[in-house]
Automatic annotation (TrEMBL):
EC number: 6.2.1.1
Domain AMP-binding enzyme C-terminal: 527-607
Domain of life where this protein originates: Bacteria
Name of the gene this protein is made from: acs
Signal peptide annotation: none
Protein's job: Catalyzes the conversion of acetate into acetyl-CoA (AcCoA), an essential intermediate at the junction of anabolic and catabolic pathways. AcsA undergoes a two-step reaction. In the first half reaction, AcsA combines acetate with ATP to form acetyl-adenylate (AcAMP) intermediate. In the second half reaction, it can then transfer the acetyl group from AcAMP to the sulfhydryl group of CoA, forming the product AcCoA.
GO MF annotations, alphabetized: acetate-CoA ligase activity
Protein name, per record: Acetyl-coenzyme A synthetase
Amino acid sequence: MSPRPDPRPAAGGPPAEAAKAAPRPGERTAADRLAFWSRQAEELHWETRWSEVLDWSAAPFARWFTGGRLNVAYNCVDRHVEAGHGDQVAFHWEGEPGDTRTITYADLRREVCRTANALLSLGLRAGDRVAIQLPMIPEAVFAMLACARLGLPHSVVFGGFSPAALQSRIEDAGARLLITSDGQYRRGRAEPMKANTDEATRHAPSIEHVLVVRRTATEVPWTEGRDLWWHDLVDTQPDEHRPEAFDAEHPLFILYTSGTTGRPKGILHTSGGYLTQTAYTHRAVFDLDPDTDVYWCTADIGWITGHSYIVYGPLANRTTSVLYEGTPTTPHEGRHFEVIEKYGVSVYYTAPTLIRTFMKWGEQLPARYDLSSIGMLGSVGEPINPEAWRWYRKHIGGDRVPIVDTWWQTETGAVMIAPLPGAAPAKPGSAQAPLPGVSAKVVDDQGREVGRGESGYLVLDQPWPAMLRGIWGDEDRYRETYWARFAHRGHYFAGDGARYDEDGDIWLLGRVDDVMNVSGHRISTAEVESALVSHPSVAEAAVVGASDPTTGQAIVAFVILRAGATDGDAAEVTAALREHVAREIGPIAKPGRILVVPELPKTRSGKIMRRLLRDVAENREAGDVTTLADASVMDLITAGLTGRP
Ligand code: WTA
């Protein structure tokens, strides 16, 4: 594909007149918005058309496209084959060790049908939950689509999560089946997976079967009668399966994400609205041409970005994608560029943390490869700093392609705020404006919209099709977390700070709650704290996210050790604590630094003042300490750390 023209002036240039004159999507009427989404839904195949676009009468529980019936997997797979595109490549799969697989839409259809037949043979029926913990292999996509085809809500758990984290997710969802693999490749090594998932399922009685993909030929523990090999069960199934249509609001998946407490939330997404918005946003934001583009989203399917922009959105749009199993460093640091060159990737969608890592490695690396196929770049996961934006555009985008900075969340299901290519002048670091059909505002404490040049909280003031339908099994927590703060106005509270610039464009400023963003992954301070205090050496713990030049934020933990635990070598204790957190949650939650302190700064009501700890973690003079119960605590903490008397 030839690069898309970028009509936008360079950073700092005057905004295009047309863009200024266009109405802000948020200013459209509610009726316009519903008509807009109705048109987008028509791009999908519906067995039965909806009678009402939005039923908001039970707010904040939305029902979109009520009365409509569709099959999500049929929309993502079969209809493309039926329309004569069976030979089009759905996935160029690239394994970490260099093995590859080309999967056409006809192949995908066959594999999804077989997998669906296999799940049926295990007695699974619509509504049953299936847990999936797999590396980035094609079977992960087959498994998700087979679940969607049968109306089995899936719960995909990132491969880096610990057995304990997997177990709690299986239990919360009451999953009957777990799909996993013998092992997974991690930076060139085969590491066990099944051995870990066995640890999780030992205490998860809802699991009746474990379906195991052979990936690394690693020895595995085996429970006769419960465990089944994928190649035995799936590969022998018939190639045909007739999809059944489900209600637009049939649950599609549960995806767990960190909140402000120690317990992850099972974010629930349903079928019709979710697929409508993921497909629309993928098409519009990336200006996608299914006949010519080769698209690569580098996320893991264990995260929402993988669900919406590797699986559902792209496949609904008949996209040809790259699916890559490995890490960017294996076997060498040029791996991503090599893959772009090899497949002629035209749309590349990644996270700022990786861009900053590329910057660290240096521009000579991408310069060694032919990246001229790139016509569009995307960014997601955290605010992209202008420096990374410019580097990305210059060294990956040849200084000529548009960059779309996409703001959204696990809860929103699909992109909400992003510059539409060609529609707005480029502003490095700003996600700019809500997409058509979406309405977002920046408001103050009272929920009043702030003026240009002012900051506040980002809210979504109108329902959207891909919005979460709740937290699995916890209606109250759903209302409390997202709708209580601005209940009087009916706004969804996103948990992000934001600012309007002088043109009214939106700049995201990061989380305003106790959720950290480490390499684009959401981790709650409370989750890491509860992992730390579950260790016998720890009396108390407080965790903060400190700015980090590469990962955005880094996890810094302050711990008070129990009497007796201080006898050994401090370095040994903190190393053991880091390992403990990795075991409890997963390696992504390991604190970068653990500081042993004699006290923690607390208010008179006993609340830990993380703001002051952040000052310490970022090597600043501690801010206002007047609300502390004991103001001398900060001196004690800093004295201990710097060795001052
Ligand atoms: C942050 C990932 C600024 C934000 C899709 C949000 C961003 C959280 C951006 C959701 C962006 C994501 N600019 N911040 N373009 N994209 N975020 O649920 O704080 O893993 O609330 O979804 O990531 O993270 P989640």
